[in-house]
Amino acid sequence: MHWLTTRFRIDLTQPRVMGIVNVTPDSFFDGGLHADTQAALAHCEALAAAGADLLDIGGESTRPGAAAPGLDEELARVLPVLRHAVTLGLPVSVDTSRPEVMRAALDLGVDIVNDVRALQRPGALDCLARHPRAGVCLMHMRGEPGTMQAAPVYDDVVREVGDFLAGRVAAARDAGIDAERIVVDPGVGFAKTAAHNVTLLARQRELLRLGRPLLVGWSRKATLGAITGRAVGDRLAASVAAALAAVQRGAAVLRVHDVAATVDALKVWRCAAQGTMPLPQGGMTSPDTHPGQRPFAPDNRAPELDSLP
Question: Active-site residue numbers?
């Protein structure tokens, strides 16, 4: 399975790591660390060097209780960072729900629109439909970030999330967006209790019925704190464990803060799954690699991230 985007056709036969760049003063984990343009640019480069397959750049905090910035402020936050990120040689996503930001980002050559509101705002669906190739991620959320955690209730969270996403995929397809451009996200932590999130993880494979790749974001989330009793800054091990659990249940893209640790964990996971050692840096084979075994590519990224002409 592949994800068609503006400049790349991304092979999703192996899980991909999407590095988070929050150009915000108030995101729940790293808010303020990369709010300055130069800090955000440096963070993009650091995540790429750490092995990120994709970058996801956003200027609106969607943590529970967050207030949205104005349009001009969001544009001022993300456009300089996106302009630089598209020069780094890997797919770039803009995390936004505003059609005006989507259009400005796509004009810069951005590859993907990652929308927590699943293209429900007026003009958003049309913006993507008018673009010939940009990828899109459609996420499940009820309400708005400022109020979404006010007693969310589901009869069957997996079925209801799946039904919502199926409806948004159908709306995108009806608007003319090719299926290969669409990825879906169950929205861990968005209008869901900790119990809802754990149920979504345990039964995540049921969402594969949608026929679209799953993008999942467990990184540093409050549910991991509820499980472990640890503060947000101490949830690295829990985040990596959740990422591997999501991959085991069919996730194709992992949206994470901690790229290097996640990339390392996936290397070990791949070795266990395939029974082979990776190629060392420089392309030399390991003495333990036997004829007929398929070693990994010698860099941090999985192979076949194809650039489109």
Answer: 221, 255
Token pair of 76 as six digits? 């001022």
In the block, tokens 């209008």 appear at: 191
The per-residue DSSP string of 68-124 comes to: PPPHHHHHHHHHHHHHHHTTSSS-EEEE---HHHHHHHHHTT--EEEETTTT-STTH
How, if at all, do strands 92-95 and 54-58 pair?
parallel
Among 232, 266, 234, smallest CA distance to 247 is for 266
Beta bridge partners of 206: none
Dihedral sign (CA 49, 55, 57, 61): negative
Domains present along the chain, CATH in parentheses: 2-265 (3.20.20.20)
pLDDT of residue 299: 36
Looking at residues 252-256, what average pLDDT do you find? 98
Flag whether pLDDT at 152 surpasses 60.
yes
Residues 6+ apart with CB under 8 A from 169: 138, 179, 182, 184, 210, 212
